Amino acid sequence: MKKHFQQSPYKSKTKVGLVLGLLALALCSFIIAKPQQARYLAHLYPLFPVDSLPKVKIPDGVDPNDENWKGIDLEPKQPVQPLSPTDEAARFLLPPGYHIQPILTEPAIQQPGAIAFDGNGRMYVLELRSYMLDADSKNELEPTSRISRWEDKNNDGIYESGTTFIDHLIFPRFVLPYGKDCILTMESDADNVYKYTDTNGDGKADKKELFTTKYGRSGNVEHQQAFMYYGMDNWLYSTVNAFRVRETPNGVIREKTGYNRAQWGVTQDDDGKLWFQGGASGLPSYFQFPIHYGNFEVPNEFAKGFDVPWGAAVKVADMQGGMDEIRQPDGSLNRVTGSAGNDIFRGDRLPENIKGQYFYGEPVARIVRQINPVVTEGLTTLHNVYQEQKTEFIRSTDPLFRPVDMATAPDGTMYIVDMYHGIIQEGQWTQKGSYLRTKIEQYQLDKVIGLGRIWRITYDGKERDKNQPKMLNEASALLVKHLEHPNGWRRDAAQQLLVLKKDLSVVPALNTMALTHKNVLARIHALWTLEGLGALKTSVVQKLLKDPSPRIRIQALRASESLYKAGDKSLEANYVTSLSDPNTDVVIQAMMTAKVLKLPDLENVIKLAMEKNKAEGVKLVGKQIMSPPKSTNMGSFGASSLSKEHQEVVARGAVIYNELCSQCHGNNGMGTPAGAGKLMAPALAGSLRIQSHPEYALRVILHGMEGSIDGKTYTAGVMASMKDQSDEWVADVVSYIRNGLSNDASVVSPQQVALIRAKTSGQKTMYQFDKLLKQIPKEILPQDGLKITASHTASTRIGGNISPLSAFTYEGWSTGITQEKGMWYQIEFPTAINVTEVRFNAPSNIKKGWQYKPNTIPPYIQIYPREYTLETSTDGINWQENIPVIKGNEGENIIPLNTNKTKFLRLTLNTSIAKDGDNIPWSMRQFKVYGQ
After folding, report:
1. Which residues form the Cytochrome c domain (predicted)?
2. Nearest 5°: CA angle at 397, between 396 and 401?
3. 213 shares a domain with 154
4. What is the rounded distance in angstroms from the CA atom of residue 524 to the CA atom of residue 273?
């Protein structure tokens, strides 16, 4: 080509045209001969001679002697090209006897991030279609992602039939099948989890319901919560969040847990212990004990050399950490730096010796790792099964192999989710001037997008299970039989469906199975199904606590905790007895149960256990129960995330509640049972009414309530008026109810009580539920027809573009630039309303441009509005100043109002922030308006 450009323009054009014509003819022949391979040409790039490619340079301002740049190959390279699934399969390196085959690929799916199966074995695929479409993560928050559902209708092992179950999602965080034709999911930078249901059987969700709130966070998409998981204990867990949630007949409740320190991956073993997968660490994060007991710091959890990956040579060397993390000369990763997806294999169609082994993906190293957990004296150490051979369970020489999830499948094998993508680090780590950006541009990795494959792992002589599950339409009695199936996925699915169906007719069969079945795994699932149905009896637990199997004794301890929390203190004696159990693992479990239930004389009973059992695990757990390390406190939500002043308010309210309210509403807020399936009073834990506008609870406490509630009657009959109590007394108890009973809502002040007291002074009788609801301020939602505008709108994240659908929701908004006087945020209501309250949250943000560094705390900026006014208008032209000066604050901002009918509401900054080098925008999350 150099010669051509040195010749005359006419001759050059002639020869170039001839060359292009021949190439076109060859391309046509190729498409006709090999149509399947031809579709990959859309992702291939022009193959110019290497000497015509631009030479890569060390970015300006970078010291060429920097360790991360020493030895870097900056020579021009041909672009990395995607392979067909058949060709990629040939690049895998697996242990003898194992095989891999594609079961679902692009173009049917794009950029898969996770999979999950419903009771009929249909596979839901989380398609993250906006992830890293270029090196700047442009348009990452566009509503282009989806959740699709796939079936293998002809039972040939390939998922050929699919539908788009939910479309136009903003980087969804997870997909959890939840009963028949239903899933749970949420979007990035959002706070609410929604339940989506297909009500007409067409494979597309047509019903959307709020499931729970205050579940999310904003920021980098790699740092937000993910992988909602249904645990064997019937609680829902996720990465990042230090709490768990659970649906009850009266609402979704939550409890604090330890910090799981995970990013992308949650799974469980046959005993229901959850295993969380880290992200940037490249390692499993928390796995020693069930997370709801808090954190225990265990030294030497990983065998020596565990952090060294043994991937195949891929040459690209696109490691975010630079040359320091590259093994020469093959360009592979020399220390784990990222991980995604995990699975304890519990199937029945792979070799028996990998059952109970832990698998996870390291997409930077292009490997899937197999881990052998070794338990010694109650403590677990993880070993890389293939470390001595300096290899891994799965390796690939294809640089585009990106294993991001894996799962035990309904057919008893294991599935691997391969995003098959060029870039696997988010835009915050691929900025211009970085080593990684240089490698991305050198190999044009940013051009490989929109692909994705899901693989099945099989083994010689073990055929996949072709008996496809049909649990969604099966009777409850048949579901009970699945609890003894050798495939752990089928046991889990059957248990979940039984609990969600709430069919108590199977309780006798479950009791028999839990007490007498020969299969210990069936007994464990039967026990937890009883617990999930609310049908577990203390007498059954006490029998199981004496069972010959230590695994059953451990499960009985865990399951009994819900009975103790509900008020059955007779179990205390059983717990003390279990602390002297001859089995070390049982003793450790009894110690953790005593801790989480806060048994009387806790320190002495723990010391007694440690005196009788000298195992290392008993010693470690006992010491950390009595003297917890500062970093192992339970996670925060509700009261634990409040200021010191508000924590004192909630603590005073707890005293009032336990002295007075718990008699009817229950110790744990779930309602005191009154026999025949009735409660003395409604449950308060998990109540959306209690957690929404506080006026509901305040009116009821001040004036009382009688009659049915939501069509249900309660044996207590009435809620007596407490209006003779002081404003502070009422504020304290309502604050506790809204924060201390698995709820998460704002604290109430005595001033708010006084306002409601004055507002309702004419109320002379007890309220009736239906009539009261009409008087309570209602949250005005975006779908109610709001029109929201602002003087300035920008993305709140580095490298992202905010979309029209996400810019003006109640989940997040920012000016994008430093606060200046006159900036405004405006809401237009569909009809004129009385606005009673405005709320928004303004948490701190990490400074733009900050790069992650180990053991460093990121710098934060406070992005709340410093001072603003609130105005209303009936026409959007003439404005009335309702509150002339409002001081903003970090975190929750609550503005009580009592406006006349208004069509417009506007917040306007009164002051500017002097520019001091930092960009301090005005940003808000969870903006809510209440009105009537």
Report:
1. 648-741
2. 55
3. yes
4. 12
List of residues 6+ apart from 819 with CB closer than 8 A: 865, 866, 909, 911, 912, 913, 920, 921, 922
For residues 287 and 312, membership in a common domain is answered with yes
The span from the CA of 757 to the CA of 755, in Å, is: 5
Q: Are 509 and 530 in contact (CB under 8 A)?
A: no
**Same structural domain for residues 328 and 185?**
yes
Reduced 3-state DSSP string for 471-509: HHHCCHHHHHHHCCCCCHHHHHHHHHHHHHHCCHHHHHH
In this structure, the answer to whether residues 656 and 593 fall within a common structural domain is no
Helix locations, 545-669, DSSP H = 550-565, 572-578, 584-597, 602-612, 616-626, 644-656, 662-665
DSSP-derived 3-state class of residue 393: coil
CB-side neighbour CA atoms (13 Å) of 671: 23
The neighbour count for residue 323, using CB atoms within 10 Å, is 17
| CA 401/CA 385 separation, integer angstroms | 21
pLDDT band at 33 (very low <50, low <70, confident <90, very high): very low
Taking only the tens place, the pLDDT of each residue in 6-16 is: 233 333 333 44
Q: Check whether residue 736 and residue 853 sit in a common domain.
A: no
State how far the Cα of 48 lies from the Cα of 50, in Å rounded to an integer: 6
In one letter, which amino acid is 735?
A: S
84-108 burial code (b ≥16 CB/10 A, e <16): bbeebbebbebbeebebebbbbbeb
Of 459, 489, 514, the domain-final residue: 459
- pLDDT for position 892: 78
Lowest mean pLDDT: which of 25-39, 175-189, 248-262, 442-456? 25-39
Q: Are residues 649 and 611 in the same domain?
A: no
87 located within any domain: no
Which contacts of 154-158 are long-range, i.e. CB under 8 A and separated by 24 or more positions? 155/466, 155/468, 157/101, 157/103, 157/411, 157/456, 157/464, 158/103, 158/104
Closest CA to 399 of 355, 435, 447: 447
> What gap in Å lies between CA 563 and CA 534, rounded to an integer?
9
CATH classification at residue 110:
2.120.10.30
How many structural domains comprise the chain? Answer: 5
**Among 417, 273, 267, residue whose Cα is nearest residue 343:** 267
Q: Could you tell me if residue 483 is inside a domain?
A: no
Q: Which of 776, 809, 824 delimits the end of a domain?
A: 776
Asked whether the beta carbons of 829 and 876 are under 8 A apart, the reply is no
Rounded CA gap, 708 and 518, in Å?
47
Lowest mean pLDDT among 237-251, 329-343, 632-646: 632-646
- In eight-state DSSP terms, residue 673 is B
Task: Provide the domain limits for residue 23.
Answer: 2-52
Q: What is the CATH number of the domain that holds 927?
A: 2.60.120.260
List C-alpha distances in Å: 328 to 72, 282, 322.
10, 20, 12
Q: Could you tell me the two tokens for 143?
A: 């509503």
Does 802 lie in the same domain as 766?
A: no
Would you state the pLDDT for residue 853? Answer: 54
Q: Pick the closest to residue 406 from 463, 350, 455, 462 (CA basis).
A: 455
Q: Is residue 77 part of a domain?
A: no
488 in a structural domain: no
- State whether 591 and 650 are in the same domain: no
**pLDDT (tens digit per residue) in 861-877:** 788 999 999 999 999 99
The mean predicted confidence, pLDDT, of the chain is: 86
